[in-house]
Amino acid sequence: MLPTQNPVEEFTTPDPVTAREDLSIDELQALMKRHVIRHLPVVRGDAVVGLISDRDVRLVAGLSLAEKLQVRAGDIMITEPLTVAASAPLQEVALKMASLKVGSAIVNDEDGRLLGIFTAVDALNALVEIARGQGTRWTHAGR
What is the rounded CA–CA span in Å between residue 82 and residue 67? Predict the structure, then answer.
């Protein structure tokens, strides 16, 4: 039987790249490309205020240049992203992501501060590790 009580923190990408609300679409695209990521928490100070996916950015990138120059991260971000505690069971987080059809969840520490991001890729890596019987954090080599 596979262990199901691994905390999501064990497979979370720690210290994710973040964006500010005032970044332009071109800046968001460059940030995602440079770090090879598809999800960006949007922060105001220390607080996560939204989340942007590469899909959100691609949709807006098709606007005319004049329109695109007017759009900022704060305009396209999801304002209430799925947010979970680091201690939440991996299985519950994965099920919630699947039911909501979202590709990532913000992971907060016990004080409610951003700890990391848990993505569908992280979930697949967790599945592999648990299926192999290791059930421990995988390394984020090359990230």
Answer: 29
What distance in Å separates the CA atoms of residue 7 and residue 38, rounded to the nearest whole number?
Answer: 23
Does any domain span residue 141? no
- Beta-carbon contacts of residue 69 (< 8 Å; ≥ 6 apart): 24
Task: Report the amino acid identity of residue 28.
Answer: L
Q: Give tens-digit pLDDT for 56-68.
A: 999 998 899 999 9
84 assigned to some structural domain = yes
Exposed, middle or buried by CB within 10 Å (0-12, 13-18, 19+), for 94? Answer: buried
**Structural domain boundaries, residue 84:** 8-131
Number of domains in the chain: 1
Q: Note whether residue 110 is domain-resident.
A: yes
What are residue 80's phi and psi, to 5 degrees?
A: -135, 70
26-84 tens-digit pLDDT: 999 999 999 999 999 999 998 999 999 999 999 998 899 999 999 999 999 999 999 99
* In a domain? residue 143: no
Q: Are strands 13-14 and 114-119 parallel, antiparallel or unpaired?
A: antiparallel
